[in-house]
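Hi W.,

Here's what went into the run:
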Amino acid sequence: KQEVTQIPAALSVPEGENLVLNCSFTDSAIYNLQWFRQDPGKGLTSLLLIQSSQREQTSGRLNASLDKSSGRSTLYIAASQPGDSATYLCAVVGGSYIPTFGRGTSLIVHP
Amino acid sequence: GAGVSQSPSNKVTEKGKDVELRCDPISGHTALYWYRQSLGQGLEFLIYFQGNSAPDKSGLPSDRFSAERTGGSVSTLTIQRTQQEDSAVYLCASNARDRVYEQYFGPGTRLTVT
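Here's what came out:
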């Protein structure tokens, strides 16, 4: 059974720092890995999706990498801003077509 | 529509009543998923539809929970005889079941059982 772990569970940083959020998964037979952002009381917003054949994806200040063989992904946030404060979740999709989610990293960026 | 929509956005009900939650997926998306997120908890998978059929109902927590999907589009999640532990945000997602399997989420329905 696929298990997804996100470290750290919570992070509080001053504005301007570069951040690395980690996601690990136990079964490397995946179709993709997707990073989401969730603001309090809201649904999930897709940030980046990395297909199994890809190594990384970039969008603005965000960069996500995937090392399928070691079961790891990192989300890099450059020059963090208070507006980046949210919970970040990763999810993997494998042969069951049902995404498995991590518990998320709660990020606070203070001015 | 442009995205996944859910209704109602908020629902307060008394213990023992039945509730229906609705999800409208992105047009053309054949796969639809229901999740539950309790306060401070992660996402709990409930059920998955491919077209109108549900290959995986393994996440439904009890026989009080049921879901259906008609016309390969709208889905309804029904909770009978609601209990206080059913209070949570219920999230719906869809994807095109192409090789990418990118998930698109709705805004959720916040259910409060008093």
